[in-house]
Design brief:
about 130 residues; single chain; mainly alpha
Length: about 130
Amino acid sequence: MSVEDLQEKERALREEIAEYNKERDRIKYVIGNIGGKRYSKVDTIVNVVFVLIIIVLFILEVAIHFIPTFLSLEIGVLLISAKIIWMIHSQQKTNHFQFWILNSIEFRMNEIIKRVKAIEKGLKDRDK
């Protein structure tokens, strides 16, 4: 191998590493937007709102019998059902994103396998 070949391979490897780092940073940014701090703030706000509504309804029921008892129970069950739906939706978004990441990893692995096979074939042809 000549020095030029080695320099060319080194340049190609550096470009590939730079591309990998750029893609890694992009994935970190996307993960942060979907499941990071911003999303957890929204989730915290929803949790606080649900808890406050349930506490207010409980206090009104105990203190002044604002609404009938059975209606109060039904509203509580409705709020808990809404919270469960919110949690299912949140989990579904997370699962979809995890599937997308795994699918991307599999695609990249298949590309790398093809490149390795091509390199092996080139080496075998060169050795003959």
